[in-house]
Amino acid sequence: MRKKEIETLFRQHYAAMYRLARTILYDADESKDVVSDVFVRLLHATPSVQPDKMESYLMMAVRNRCLDVLSHKSVREQVEKLLLQEMKQRHIVARSEDERLDRLMQYIERELPPLSQRILRLRFLREMTYEEVAQEVGVSTATVYNHLSQSVQRIKEYFSINK
Q1: What is the pTM of this model?
Q2: 44 pLDDT exceeds 80?
Q3: Domain 3-83, CATH number (from 3.40.50, 1.10.1740, 2.10.260, 1.10.1060)
């Protein structure tokens, strides 16, 4: 189709096409986009439509394009909803983990001796080896092991009772 023919079709049918799109989509901007898209597609592809059937063809093209838009919108809304749910769930889990970590740190500071606290921090927070912790604190590796195992045992017992 030539541009002149498309311009003529545009002037003749735009208003009816827009009304149909607006009735389906309830959105002025999306409706304009749909009608424009139909004419762009018409410009790039030459349909084999008889001139007396062109209005029906254009209206059907608008309807189909509107249904595509609604379908994509539905999928997009579902994805957004799932992402929102996942973000909320991650926030709840993170907050729960933060609360548990706070409780753990409070217990360690309140109940464990200073040497055990220091050994725990060096081993687990600074990720030092048993040998590095022993050198830092100035004790044997066996002492580091004993303090860690006793501390971990006390922590397990406390949290198994106080869930």
Answers
A1: 0.46
A2: yes
A3: 1.10.1740
